[in-house]
Specification:
The chain is 38% helix and 15% strand. The protein has 306 residues and is α/β, with parallel strands linked by helices. β2 and β3 form a beta hairpin. It starts with 14 loop residues before the first helix and ends with a helix.
Length: 306
Amino acid sequence: MSYAGPGFEPPQPPRSSVRRALAVALAVLVLGGGGWFVWGAVADDGGGGKGDALSSGDYEPLSPIGTPGISVPSGSESESAAPLAGKVVVVDPGHNPGNFKHTAEINRKVDIGTNSKECDTTGTATNSGYTEAEFTLDVARRLRPVLEQQGATVKFTQDGDLAFGPCVDERARIGNAARADAVVSIHADGSSAGNRGFHVILPGAVHEGDADTRPIVASSKVLGEDVKDGFVRETGSAPSNYIGDGTGLDTRTDLGGLNLSTVPKVFIECGNMRDSADAALLTSGTWREKAAQGISEGIVSFLRGS
């Protein structure tokens, strides 16, 4: 039967039936359509301005309301995903690839508390010409993302962006100004052939002029021990056979970068560039990646325990 004739209105269902039908339709829309009903309402919220015209790629749809199996990470889960959140680490790549072009500037004397020393040096190199400054920047750049992935804020004293330096006193000030939770200065040694292995340099107790390391000696030692242990685990390298009596640790009071620090800080000499066996490691990208991982492991261990 048709209701298409003139003057005819199709029969209207009872009002109660309409309400029931609408209720069912809305329930299906909300439950079956997931979060799109809610998302549409939010995205269509008035207010004008730059955000009015949104493409489908601008937002992820909300999860359906009440969908089982979807939960917000707890505080402990967030902390485990970013164990270094809120921590500041300053990485100090030793020397600078441009230092050799600025001998007058880097030879200028600066106060290190106990005495005066050169602003900086060119560093050493392997017999094949791979420089310490290239090495330190490479390891530092590998180290940075590893620490950042764990939530740390990472600052460099230089990233190859300076003509020379910075001077050793300025390197210390950068860590101090950042209120760093840990500072690691990356180096490679230039000792005689046959001298092999790495060592970590710790600040000795100094209280003279602008230098006062007494508040950081103990914490820096813990940092140094953690970095040493992490470095051994990741690289398999043995501690130095010529410095530190096999401990891999050496305490010094003549380094401005340590003397002027007010935050926990160590140097690591990752190997001897003048020894052919060590040089083979230092020039290997695969090994430098392990070195960065080892240093990171030590920093993480120190910061999680502090």
